[in-house]
Write a structure and sequence with these properties.
Order of helices and strands: HEEHEEE
Helix content: 25-40%
Radius of gyration: 16 Å
Shape: globular
Distance between the termini: 54 Å
Structural class: alpha+beta
Amino acid sequence: KLLGREQLSVKFHTMENEIIDSITQTAQQAGVLGVVAADKNGLCLGAAGNATKAACGAITSLSKRAQALAALHGGGSEHVSVCVESEAGNIFVKAHDQVTVAVYRAVQ
């Protein structure tokens, strides 16, 4: 059994590293101010740049509400994205599989 736990730990660690690498790479793109990712329960998986871990619950909730709204209006709820616009910048929110990602971009 111990071997199974070790394998699970290695698999989780590898997945975690992939998420962190993706967040870091996205945060380095031109015009991106920050990136945050959360699991389906709103728990933070990682954040970079101006994005804060405190936003994880809000982005997950926002994404779920947008999916529910799309489903009510006959649209598919699997490929829903949300854009929050403000004078400070835009926040693009999208869920895929069981991860919700928000990308903070500068206003252009």
